[in-house]
Amino acid sequence: MHQGVMKAWLESSHLNGANSTYVEQMYEAYQEDPQSIPEDWQTVFDNLPYVNGSSVEVPEAVHSKVRDYFRSLALEGHHKSSARMSDPDVDAKQVKVLQLINAYRFRGHQSANLDPLGLWDREKVSELDPSFHGLGSDDMQREFNTGSFAHGGDTLKLIDLVNALKSTYGGSIGAEYMHITDTDEKRWIQQRLEPSLGRGQYSTEDKKRVLESLNAAEGLEKYLGAKFPGAKRFSLEGGDALVPMMREIIYRAGDAGTKEVVIGMAHRGRLNVLVNVLGKNPSELFDEFAGKHSDHNNGSGDVKYHQGFSSDFETPGGNVHLVLAFNPSHLEIVNPVVIGSVRARLDRRGCDTGLQVLPITIHGDSAITGQGIVQETFNMSQTRGFKVGGSIRIVVNNQVGFTTSNREDVRSTEYCTDIAKMVQAPIFHVNADDPEAVAFISQLAVDYRNEFKRDVVIDLVCYRRHGHNEADEPSATQPLMYAKIKKHPTPRKIYAERLIAEQTLASDDVTAMVNHYRDALDEGNCVVKERRTTTQHSGDWAPYIGAEWHDAYPGEMSMERLKRLAGKISYVPEAHKLQSRVEKIYKDRLLMAQGEKLLDWGFAETLAYASIVEDKKRIRITGQDSGRGTFFHRHAVLHNQNDATAYLPLRNISDDQGPIDITDSVLSEASVLAFEYGYATAEPSGLTLWEAQFGDFANCAQVVIDQFLSSGEQKWGRLCGLTMLLPHGYEGQGPEHSSARLERFLQLCANHNMQVCVPSTPAQVYHMLRRQVVRPMRRPLVVMSPKSLLRHPLAVSSLEELAHGTFQNVIGEIDSLDASKVDRVVFCSGKVYFELLEKRRKNNIDNVALIRVEQLYPFPREEALAALADYAHVSDFVWCQEEPQNQGAWYCSQHHFRGVIPTGAGLSYAGREASAAPACGYPTLHAEQQESLINSALKL
């Protein structure tokens, strides 16, 4: 705004020299929150001119300069418009009114009626008192401009404004959203909260639907409590409003066009959600309580409050497919699993807005703050490779973390939801005893998520009527709380009496609804009237069910096709300038494609990907350096050195190829691996890979490995073909950069639950990756991938080995030894093989044979016997490893080796001594240990 225009505006307004104080106060309010003042004033301040030619605009300049600027304009206006002077006191109080509005928007939630038990001892917020702003009783009947407060027109009497603010921000809903920096988001929330005073308008049918949900929530818990007294069920009682909340979210999402909803939650209320939201038959649940589903021939099974479920739910906008994810007792780890599953479903649908698939994660009040995986999942919520268009996060806040009720024992923040502020998610606290407020916020949350594609948090403030489980006695540790709970009416009773009082329903109708639900439970049939016949939504798993390890992998590929693919992955547009080292790699790849140079690891790996996407299969690779590869070998994403644009040869294989995403992930292991597990469980046909920066870093994701990858099929019947690439090998880089802890994976191996491979050549990695997709078996693949072998002169392969070979679980002796002279056979895996081979050749040793075991689990017994066929006369067998004796494969696999060597033969160990640390940190000591174990294996 030019200075002349501003002068004219001031002269035409009621402002003049006498009101310069008003202008200053208005500007102060603008600095605190631009939305707290009328839009015309926002325009004035937004368009302030530069001060003294400075490049810093006035809103960011010293306040005195702004004051002086306005005073000069106002003084000029004083001489021209003194007849239009208004009351300076009124104008000053107008600013205070706007500051009062702003105070409620910022801190009104601290005065809201959120605790159903009334036990919260909250300090009074002085800024919410009109007197704090100099507004007294004599001002209450005055009319003031309400600025952007969206209720009752441009002006209101102060008394009416205060009542409106209290109703909107101090009722059953406490809205925290002023921490959001985006003005449009804050304004959108205000436009939803303030016109309605934070309340929804519901028809009789709407209210009846909410009461039915509360009847169901309470009815199931009472029924289970009577039928199975003392049995663990992690009751929802006290947080009953979760059921109407979930149902309203699903209805709203369906209306907006959502096709799938994926839910992750821990134990509390899970059985209730299964029966009353997803529509699991009560009779099935009762059988589980009675122990009738014990089937030792069908996996280990899991407790009923870990089980998942899926169904279709009818809404006015169409059927919505509901999925409740299986989860272990590690409460919050299911969150990134859910988000990963949602991303896979969105990718399959080609939906990049997130609208068609909605994630809902349900948290406990202590778990959401106490477990770091929540922060990790929030952090990835807006990143390119992991965003899903926002999620709805519900906290069932029963105010007791486990057996602790004091806030200072479980967190360091006022609210358990404060962690969500890191991503500027709006947070809506709501009193669970006010189901209409719950319904209102549920609908608002869905709309916000769909509008802004961001996370939104609902803090359902409730209580826990019983102990942590039904055998627990909570009054031992929370006597005052549970004395109050025993006297407190249930949410259903409170709402039923409210509807009776307002004559929405008659008392007899309420009783009939309760009896009707009880009768339905007695019949054991589905109690969710919206449930419909389930159709396939999560990918077609039929081709993979029942597949096993022995299913054929047709590794053969025509040389013509292989060379064509090799040319595709080696081509870079001329205008795409590469970094010099990368350019050298691609020049070498051209020679490899033309058959003039043997293939290295990166080229063979990339060829495998090219063949998979040409077969129209999807590939997803994530890791902290996946685009280039941690050890500078992959270079699947090429960065133009002139303009930083990216080119992916693998996206230019053919016009109708499968999609490929290669993402440099956030610096997290647990959340990313859990995300990829979730993705792989919802995308069976393609190849999903997670690459650790160093294999050692899988430590940080151990819970995902233990409780999902290794045991998910056994516990829940969940197949998953996720591949983990874990760089592993002893190169003198110390304890945290050597070992992927091979022994941990082998210890978890049983029931053919996963594959553990240590490929040693480019041809092996090519066939191993292709086999994971082409073969119908879908189980996790754990790869001890190399570091130094990526560029080792002996770790090379030919195009013929790719075209006409296959994955070899065991690789026998490759040199032309006279088998009759061999008196020792050394088993080994990985990098140590090449050190053994080089040392044997250097010393002209011809009596020691080397056998590589490339797949340690499931142990390839038949292939091992075939490799040993020429050594039936040998009685001296050795297992050689780089890892300390208590680590690596020795303890977990020696029984397999003993099972294939000749009867009466001995098996000994060659490797490092047992150690508490995975590797030593001194290069000289490493070299000494390495030479010693090689010499020991070769009898030197």
TrEMBL record:
<keyword id="KW-0786">Thiamine pyrophosphate</keyword>
<comment type="function">
    <text>E1 component of the 2-oxoglutarate dehydrogenase (OGDH) complex which catalyzes the decarboxylation of 2-oxoglutarate, the first step in the conversion of 2-oxoglutarate to succinyl-CoA and CO(2).</text>
</comment>
<dbReference type="InterPro" id="IPR042179">
    <property type="entry name" value="KGD_C_sf"/>
</dbReference>
<dbReference type="InterPro" id="IPR001017">
    <property type="entry name" value="DH_E1"/>
</dbReference>
<dbReference type="Pfam" id="PF02779">
    <property type="entry name" value="Transket_pyr"/>
</dbReference>
<protein>
    <recommendedName>
        <fullName>oxoglutarate dehydrogenase (succinyl-transferring)</fullName>
        <ecNumber>1.2.4.2</ecNumber>
    </recommendedName>
</protein>
<dbReference type="InterPro" id="IPR031717">
    <property type="entry name" value="ODO-1/KGD_C"/>
</dbReference>
<dbReference type="Pfam" id="PF16078">
    <property type="entry name" value="2-oxogl_dehyd_N"/>
</dbReference>
<dbReference type="InterPro" id="IPR011603">
    <property type="entry name" value="2oxoglutarate_DH_E1"/>
</dbReference>
<dbReference type="InterPro" id="IPR029061">
    <property type="entry name" value="THDP-binding"/>
</dbReference>
<dbReference type="InterPro" id="IPR032106">
    <property type="entry name" value="2-oxogl_dehyd_N"/>
</dbReference>
<dbReference type="Pfam" id="PF00676">
    <property type="entry name" value="E1_dh"/>
</dbReference>
<dbReference type="InterPro" id="IPR005475">
    <property type="entry name" value="Transketolase-like_Pyr-bd"/>
</dbReference>
<dbReference type="GO" id="GO:0004591">
    <property type="term" value="F:oxoglutarate dehydrogenase (succinyl-transferring) activity"/>
</dbReference>
<dbReference type="Pfam" id="PF16870">
    <property type="entry name" value="OxoGdeHyase_C"/>
</dbReference>
<feature type="domain" description="Transketolase-like pyrimidine-binding">
    <location>
        <begin position="599"/>
        <end position="792"/>
    </location>
</feature>
<comment type="similarity">
    <text>Belongs to the alpha-ketoglutarate dehydrogenase family.</text>
</comment>
<keyword id="KW-0560">Oxidoreductase</keyword>
